[in-house]
Design a protein that fits this description.
The chain contains 4 helices and 9 strands. The protein is of the alpha/beta class. The protein has a single domain (11-151), classed as 3-Layer(aba) Sandwich (Rossmann fold). The strands form 2 sheets. Strands 4-3-2-5-6-7 form a 6-stranded mixed sheet, sandwiched between helices. The protein has a 3-stranded antiparallel sheet with strand order 1-9-8. α3 links the parallel β5 and β6. The longest helix is centred in the N-terminal third of the chain and has 19 residues, at 12-30. The protein binds 1-O-pyrophosphono-5-O-phosphono-alpha-D-ribofuranose, hypoxanthine (HPA) and magnesium ion. Residues 42-45, 69-71, 76, 99-108, 159 line the site of 1-O-pyrophosphono-5-O-phosphono-alpha-D-ribofuranose.
Length: 179
């Protein structure tokens, strides 16, 4: 275990197994549609999760990326800025938003509203992690990988100031790293 990690919360094997389950659920939910959903992944944290999840979705899905930023270090700054918009038109498309974590919920709320305003037929959310104790806005993901306690986590896409994203598991960051 890397020495900045206090303890591992979710192992690589648990993530793979859960992505398989989520992929099957999602495939089942959208299988009657004429057109498969467009997965919209939020850069950068959701990239490892998107990569694992799409292996398990048995539909002709497409994916695209948006980049919004809301965190500096371990602090949510409240204001969600759009740094990169979508390339593909989402008018009348069913969207599945792919997130690494729902924490305060501000990012999800803002992006969901934005996609609806652009004319999406429907927006659902799949999140690898959910930290419900930290929520400040009323929003929930439709598909959740793991519910975790109120601790700052890194790995499998999640960073602390752009570090530790590439750990293959999700772990609690030692407080001495950021205090
Ligand atoms: O529920 P919230 O409190 O809004 O927090 C969740 C969001 O914050 C992080 O993004 P960040 O801005 O750190 O971008 P990143 O994915 O590039 O790390 C994370 O990846 C989520 O998108
Ligand atoms: O616990 C977290 N870790 C990394 N990034 C985050 N963005 C929101 N919560 C977290
Ligand atoms: Mg981040």
């Amino acid at each position: 275990m890397q020495n900045v990690i206090e303890r591992v919360l979710v192992t690589r094997e648990e993530i793979e197994k859960r992505c398989d389950e989520l992929g099957k659920e999602i495939s089942e939910a959208y299988k009657q549609d004429k057109e498969a959903p467009l997965l919209v992944a939020l850069l950068k944290g959701s990239v490892p999760f998107l990569s694992e999840l799409i292996k398990h979705i048995d539909l002709d899905i497409q994916f695209d990326f948006m980049n919004v930023s809301s965190y500096q270090g371990t602090q949510s700054v409240g204001d969600v800025k759009i740094l990169k918009d979508l390339d593909i038109s989402i008018k009348d498309r069913r969207i599945l938003l792919v997130e690494d974590i729902v924490d305060t919920g501000r990012t999800l709320k803002k992006v969901t509203q934005l996609l609806m305003n652009k004319g999406a037929a429907d927006v659902k959310v799949v999140a690898l992690l959910d930290k419900p104790e930290r929520r400040v806005v009323d929003i929930e993901a439709d598909y959740i990988g793991f519910t975790i306690p109120d601790e700052f986590v890194v790995g499998f896409g999640l960073d602390y100031n752009e570090h530790y994203r590439c750990f293959p598991y999700v772990g609690v960051l030692k407080k001495e790293v950021y205090k």
